[in-house]
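Bit of a strange request maybe. I'm writing a small parser for structure token strings and I need a real example to test against, not something I typed by hand. Could someone generate the tokens for this chain?
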Amino acid sequence: MKKFSIPSFLQAPGRSKENRLMPYGQTILWAVIIGLLGGLIATIYYGILAGGLYVIWDVIQPALQAGFKVKGAEMFSIVLLTTIGGIIVGFLMKYLRTPGEISAVVNNIHVKQGRMDPKQNPSMFINSLTSIVFGGSAGPEAPLVQLIGSSGSKLGEKLKLHGDLIRTFTFCGMAAALGAFFGAPIGGALFALEIPHNRGLEYYEALIPSVISAIAAFVVFRLFIGYEGALYQLPQLTDMSMLFVFEGIGMGIIGAGIAILFIIIFRRIDKLLFPLKKYPVLLGSVGGVTIGLLAITIPANFITTPLFWSEFQIIDLINGISTLQLNYSLWGAVGLLVLLVFVKMLSISFTLHSGYRGGFIFPLFFIGASSGIAISLATSQFIPMPVAIIGLMAAVNVGVTKTPISTSIILISLTGGALFPVVAAASVTSYICTERVRLINTQQHRKDNSSPMHRVWRWKEH
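Reply from user aminoacidic:
Good idea to test on real output. This should exercise your parser:
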């Protein structure tokens, strides 16, 4: 049988066996290939995820609830399922290679020229699907970044490319993952390039290839799962005003405070659970039980739940504003939304510190949207509902991830609105307020950047 070989027009030229450079045209072609491959991987992952969610929560959970036939059967069935999920995650952590998380991915960009270990992919694939399917507050974006980013990295190594090109291929994979999942290819590509740094985008040479990969992945992924444009339909504004921009600045300040509170809670839960890390099954079990107990603190007839990664729960929030106002008093609704925000912060923290794997972008958007609705209601909509929602969605995420440019573009793509100045004002304000407060401690400057400004701008790494 003839051995497969890469076509000559896609091979890096030169006689060197290592550290090969590649013409820009070939790099673009490979960016397209990585994007197409990434779109297929994302489609397969999402299909399995959707099937798992259906079986667990649309078949098994109702059957358990009906079978128990006691008061509180729904709550008991939820806690039982999240606990089972935690136990499974614990055994996966014990017997499979421990999959990396976002800090490790960011560190590899700087230290290992973007090289990701594909040997972690089976563990990440199984662990993350289990984590998400059983109700963990983490999303598919981080697992997809690992799965597709490592595919780009491995491809670069197989082609024996220079380290800088391997990093570019890794960025292409990361951008493909985020562009497909967010439904915003340019925003997803920029997010992949912003997340390694706490002060902007620095690997500029990877920008165009990453955008191309993201677009290719977006096309493949959305061809299979569908595309309906803006995911979130915010309440309509009767007119526009420059006052909204100043309100966006205010939302940026408030969102920065919420982001800092989340970071504090996240770190405290890490310290709380640290002694259990030697016992992964026990750790996963504690995480599963806690996630379930947190979920049932919110009334069953409330408009949404703190379970899952919240991409679609945000839709429930926005569409349920009228129902919320009808079913509860003003301060009753505000109080429940504040409780929901606090519960979601705890749920994310217990999820990601109990061995579960997933991303926290949509969970952070959910915290921002819940906070925005609460603030708008508490001020009798002096701050318009759309301004408060989208402003805080942006500000909370930027305060944690330090991605003001990509977050703004992603949110405008998700909402399809005309509030870009509000989003930009909230994002930049939150970034300025939280610039020295980091959750991802491996975010740093590009090591090979010789610009004196980067030496001037440096501050003590924590």
